[in-house]
Design brief:
Blueprint: H1 2-12, H2 16-34, H3 38-61, H4 71-74, H5 81-105, H6 113-129, H7 135-153, H8 160-191, H9 196-202, H10 210-227, H11 235-242, H12 245-269, H13 276-298, H14 303-325, H15 329-354, H16 373-376, H17 378-392, H18 398-412, H19 416-441, H20 460-477, H21 479-487
Helix pairs in contact: 2-3, 2-6, 3-5, 3-6, 5-6, 5-12, 5-15, 5-20, 6-7, 6-12, 7-8, 7-12, 8-10, 8-11, 10-13, 11-14, 12-15, 13-14, 13-19, 14-15, 14-18, 14-19, 15-17, 15-18, 15-20, 15-21, 17-19, 17-20, 18-19, 18-20, 20-21
Length: 492
């Protein structure tokens, strides 16, 4: 009996970081039940995420025992280098969103504690997504990420925009999930398996099956919606604009990283990338995402909407990497998404620090609110400047390295048209990113609607934003360490 128990425990060791977050959820629930305290709930959440992160880093370094997977669980999930890399990114992003939420919610005259609960539940879904290797675990983990997001987006419901963004995401996300599920049903009907690897083994016999192509296309539509790739991007600018600033940060970092990791594993493990129809579909999505995302961002006056359209374009760049180099796309796409997530945290972090949830008029999301910020808050302006330059792909920022790798991937796959699309998209992107920077350095307005506290850099959210800026600069100046680390993110 004791041996059985010990074997069971050893089988759970690979999932130790995820179990740490599950225990944190239970601890937060108990804390809320006993006494509502914003500080206690926020502290427990941050401690739990830190414990999970350190266990994971210990396992990657070989300090903590990784154990062996239980055979039953092995069919649904796999903990490989690719999963571990993306889990580290998700942990860091979730920590950043928790710390930003703390300062943001400080003035909210309503219950604040449940937001951390929803965020932790969604993070568990994200951590399971990067490990999924079965269509059942694919769908369940995706829904576990999505369902708490509905509540998080409409958390500041006293603002109609926040409520609207939550409802819009709920309706459209449910439609995408239904399409995804139908696609899975078609693939299962043709192949007779739900696991990723067996699908690839039977693909040679069912290569030109209309049912398989239809199933793969429907799944691509569902994945494209979650990634906000064109033409399934309609929800993105509205939801980004209406969502509370820390939740928009969460949506742009944790949600995107988890979904892209799952999409990459699914496409590589099932070998669906070998289907010409899937390749063509991804190429069309990538081209449309880059063109629509960048061109629509040019005429935006809202910073959050601009960043929303910018995210559509960036998903297009990653899709180009996947189409161009296929099975070798795991490490480059992971590196791109990691840097994109950190940059989004920095950009949305500035918006969060400038905003307040209790203002019915809204947040500091208009570009005009940032006019002359340099003259009042030069360090904060410096943070925003580095984030914009990184998103544009300017040298000496990490964004330049990732964009360069995306172009090299397109060249390696001899997709000259797609390589040209990245360069064209980057040129258009540079225009509107510089427009944001010009606004920051203009003469200050007489009437200041939004501003940060003078000690913003000493608060938790401020420290996190400065730390992310340091990471972007460090990897931009010394990219070797980032490239070496990302090269480990391989699917077994």
């Amino acid at each position: 009996m004791n041996d059985f128990t010990m074997n069971d425990l050893m089988g759970l060791l690979p999932y130790a970081p995820i179990i740490a977050v599950v225990i944190t959820v239970l601890a937060v629930m108990i804390a809320i039940t006993m006494k509502r305290s914003h500080m206690v709930t926020g502290t427990i959440s941050v401690i739990g995420l830190n414990i999970g992160l350190f266990i994971l880093l210990g396992q990657m370094a070989g300090i903590v025992d990784s154990g062996t997977l239980v055979p039953a669980a092995e069919q649904l999930f796999v903990i490989d280098n690719f999963a571990q890399f993306n889990m580290v990114i998700i942990f860091i992003c979730a920590l950043a969103c928790c710390t930003l939420s703390y300062a943001y919610l400080a003035n909210l005259k309503d219950n604040k504690e449940e937001l951390y609960l929803l965020m932790l539940l969604s993070t568990i879904g994200a951590l399971l997504m990067v490990c999924a290797q079965h269509l059942a675990s694919f769908f369940m983990s995706l829904e576990m990420l999505s369902i708490p997001l509905y509540g998080m987006l409409s958390y500041t419901y006293m603002r109609t925009r926040s409520l609207e963004s939550g409802l819009k995401y709920l309706v459209l996300s449910a439609t995408a999930s239904a399409t995804l599920l139908m696609g899975m049903a078609f693939i299962y009907a043709e192949v007779g398996s739900l696991a990723f690897k067996p699908i690839s083994l039977t693909l040679a016999d069912t290569f030109e099956s209309p049912l398989l192509i239809l199933g793969a296309a429907m799944m691509m539509f569902g994945i494209a919606f979650k990634l906000s790739a064109a033409p399934f991007h309609i929800w993105t600018p509205d939801v980004y604009e209406g969502a509370p600033a820390p939740i928009a940060t969460y949506l742009a970092s944790v949600s995107k990283v988890a979904m892209m990791a799952l999409a990459v594993r699914f496409l590589i493990d099932t070998s669906l990338l070998a289907l010409p129809s899937v390749q063509m579909l991804l190429m069309v999505m990538a081209t449309l995402s880059i063109l629509l995302g960048n061109l629509l961002a040019v005429r935006q006056t809202s910073l959050k909407r601009l960043l929303g359209y910018s995210s559509i374009a960036h998903m297009g760049y990653v899709l180009i990497v996947i189409v161009s180099i296929g099975s070798a796309a795991d490490s480059i796409s992971s590196m791109y998404m990691a840097i994109y997530a950190f940059t989004s945290i920095g950009a949305f972090g500035v918006v969060t620090l400038m905003s307040s949830p209790y203002r019915l008029s809204g947040e500091a999301d208009q570009l005009i609110h940032y006019q002359g910020l340099f003259w009042r808050r030069p360090v904060l302006t410096g943070v925003m400047t580095i984030m914009m330059l990184s998103l544009a792909g300017i040298p000496l920022t990490a964004g330049f390295i990732t964009k360069l790798f995306a172009i090299l991937a397109a060249v390696q796959g001899t997709n000259w048209f797609l390589a040209a699309m990245i360069i064209l998209g980057s040129a258009i992107g540079l225009f509107y990113y510089l427009r944001v920077l010009l606004t920051l350095f203009k003469r200050p307005k007489q009437f200041i609607e939004f501003d940060v506290s003078k000690q913003w850099g000493l608060r938790t959210g401020g420290i996190m934003v400065i730390a992310v800026t340091a990471i972007i600069l460090f990897f931009g100046v010394l990219p070797n360490s980032m490239i070496e680390w990302a090269s480990l993110a391989r699917i077994w």
